[in-house]
């Protein structure tokens, strides 16, 4: 079954020519929190790392069969997240079949999303990703690991992952707010340096997906 899904994903990815998506989930959390972040990340990647991602990201629900059409799905928000049994099965099949889910805590999601991740992967623990992992190495080096874009409560930025057969399939970025750093400059008034770091880290994530 996994091999069939993987082959289906390969066909889908080539057919849809590097289209990525935002996850529209249930539970009351603001899945739509950063409307300019993915479009800005797409423009940065297409201009700087030779991707050909469609300018406008799609929106996909976790239980939809369309999920399998996207090599990269991004999830963000501040609040509650609830996955149905169908969502859980579909997300698990998606990642076991070669898909990649990036969850970016926009501050306030952590207590909810960890429970839902455990439902998807009951036998896998979130593992902190070391700074020497390839996702922090290229095309832009981050020798100290995940950059911190927004300060909330003084804790360090951390990147956690779920690995399937040695490959990272779920990335959870915590206490960083990458997505805020991808937004239009006037939204958060971040410094040019902070926005540059956020976009470069985002480009590393996209590069990892399309080259591994």
Plain-language structure description:
- With 212 residues, the protein is of the alpha/beta class.
- The protein has one domain (2-211): 3-Layer(aba) Sandwich (Rossmann fold), CATH 3.40.50.12140.
- It is built from seven helices and seven strands; from the N terminus they run H-E-H-E-E-H-E-H-E-E-E-H-H-H.
- It has helices at 2-16, 37-48, 85-96, 110-120, 178-182, 185-188, 192-211; strands spanning 21-23, 58-60, 72-77, 100-105, 127-128, 158-164, 167-174.
- The protein has a seven-stranded mixed β-sheet with strand order 2-1-3-4-7-6-5, covered by helices on one side.
- The radius of gyration is 16 Å and the shape is globular.
- Mean pLDDT is 90; it is low at 1-16.
CA-atom Rg in angstroms: 16 Å
Instruction: Note the overall shape.
Output: globular
SSE ordering: HEHEEHEHEEEHHH
Task: Indicate how many domains the architecture comprises.
Answer: 1
Q: Outline the biggest β-sheet.
A: 7 strands, mixed
- Strand arrangement, largest sheet? 2-1-3-4-7-6-5
Provide mean pLDDT, rounded.
90
Strand content: 15-25%
Number of helices: 7
Structural class: alpha/beta
The total strand number stands at: 7
Which CATH class?
Alpha Beta
